[in-house]
Structure formats: C-alpha cells, structure tokens
C-alpha cells in the first residue's frame, strides 16, 4: 500500500473518526499523530509495546515512542511522505485495540 500525505481536512476528518472509537484522544502534536497511553503497571505497558512491535514489523510502519513505567507516548508520522498518512491512522486504530 503506497502512502499519500493527508491534507489538513483529511487529517481532521480521520481524527474525528479515530477519536470516536477511543476514550482518550489522539491529537496532532508537532505534525505527528500523538497519544499518551497509560496502563495499570509496567508489565501492561510493555505487553502493549510487544503486541504493537509485532504488528508494526509486519506492516513495516514504525512508531516514534517512549516508555516511562506505565506510560507509553506514541507519535506516528509517515517519514517517506513527510507527513501523516492513512498508514498512521491504521496503526493508531490497531494500537487502541492492543491497549484494550
Ligand atoms: C526502508 C523502510 O521500508 C522504510 O524506511 C519504512 C520503514 N518504516 C517506516 N515507518 C514510518 N513511520 N514511516 C515510514 O515512512 C517508514 N518507512
């Protein structure tokens, strides 16, 4: 699947749809699709990262993320097109599911 950089309107519409399915919102921060996940403890946070890692490797589309104890900050952008694309929204939806 080739990536196409989404327009501002495209990002805004995709964000509305993505956030209708999740309790805590994704936002655009520094031009990247961003979310802070909070888990009950480190093990759950790391389990989320492990499930996500297997998926991102299969899709060859990788997050920028950091983990502090029970928190995982995720930022998604499609480097090949220099902006947010459908691939980022697909991964965001999957990560919300992995987070339970
Ligand atoms: C060579 C390799 O397929 C590319 O660099 C892939 C790897 N993972 C990637 N991840 C993200 N987030 N954006 C990309 O453009 C991208 N490109």
Write up this protein.
The chain is of the alpha+beta class and 100 residues long. The protein has a single domain (8-99), classed as 2-Layer Sandwich (Gyrase A, domain 2). 44% of the residues lie in helices and 21% in strands. It contains 3 helices and 4 strands, in the order αββαββα. The chain has helices at residues 8-19, 42-59, 86-99; strands at 27-29, 32-38, 64-68, 71-76. Strands 1-2-4-3 form a 4-stranded antiparallel beta sheet, with helices on one face. β1 and β2 form a beta hairpin. α2 runs antiparallel to α3. The mean pLDDT is 96. The chain binds the ligand C[C@H](O)[C@H](O)[C@H]1CNC2=NC(N)=NC(=O)C2=N1. Ligand H2B is lined by residues 60-62, 77-80. The site of the ligand C[C@H](O)[C@H](O)[C@H]1CNC2=NC(N)=NC(=O)C2=N1 has 7 residues, from loops. It catalyses: (4aS,6R)-4a-hydroxy-L-erythro-5,6,7,8-tetrahydrobiopterin = (6R)-L-erythro-6,7-dihydrobiopterin + H2O. It is an enzyme of class 4 (lyase). GO terms for molecular function: 4-alpha-hydroxytetrahydrobiopterin dehydratase activity. InterPro entries: PCD_sf, Pterin_deHydtase. Belongs to the pterin-4-alpha-carbinolamine dehydratase family.
């Amino acid at each position: 699947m080739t990536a196409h950089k989404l327009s501002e309107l495209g990002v805004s519409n995709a964000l509305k749809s993505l956030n209708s399915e999740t309790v805590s919102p994704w936002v655009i921060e520094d031009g990247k699709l961003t979310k802070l996940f909070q888990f009950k403890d480190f093990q759950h946070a790391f389990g989320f990262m492990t499930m996500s890692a297997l998926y991102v490797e299969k899709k060859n589309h990788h997050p920028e993320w950091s983990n502090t104890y029970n928190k995982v900050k995720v930022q998604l952008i499609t480097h090949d097109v220099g902006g947010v694309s459908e691939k980022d929204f697909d991964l965001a939806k999957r990560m919300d599911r992995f987070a339970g």
